[in-house]
Amino acid sequence: MLLHQLTGTGIALGDTVYPYKEIKKFWIIYNPPHVKILNIENHSLPQPPSQHPNGHEDPGELKSFLKNTFQKT
Questions:
Q1: Is the pLDDT of residue 69 over 50?
Q2: Cα distance between residue 33 and residue 17, in whole Å
Q3: φ/ψ of residue 44, rounded to 5
Q4: pLDDT tens, 45-65?
């Protein structure tokens, strides 16, 4: 599954949308050139963090965007 859309209210990954208010934390595993994985842990889901390959997205830009978004919420 690839990262499809970052919005002002959440992260859309395929058919699943993760609202920012439900995300407990996120982290990115980055080992160039092939490993770029966004990990998301939710407040509301009692399960292990979900892992999402983020394809051609720039991990630095993704991290910066998400950090700025979480500082505003």
A1: yes
A2: 27
A3: -90, -15
A4: 667 677 777 767 788 888 888
The alpha carbon of 20 is separated from its chain's Cα centroid by a whole number of angstroms, namely 9
Q: Dump the DSSP string for 39-69.
A: EEEESS--SPPEEEE-TTS-HHHHHHHHHHH
Give me the pLDDT at residue 7, please.
81
Q: Could you tell me if 39 and 49 are in contact, meaning their C-beta atoms sit under 8 angstroms apart? A: yes
Q: Hey, where are the domains in the chain?
A: 3-72
| Type of residue found at 15 | D
Give exposure, 23-36, as e/b (b: 16+ Cβ within 10 Å). Answer: beebebeeeeeeeb
What does the pLDDT read at residue 3? 54
* 32 token code pair: 């160039």
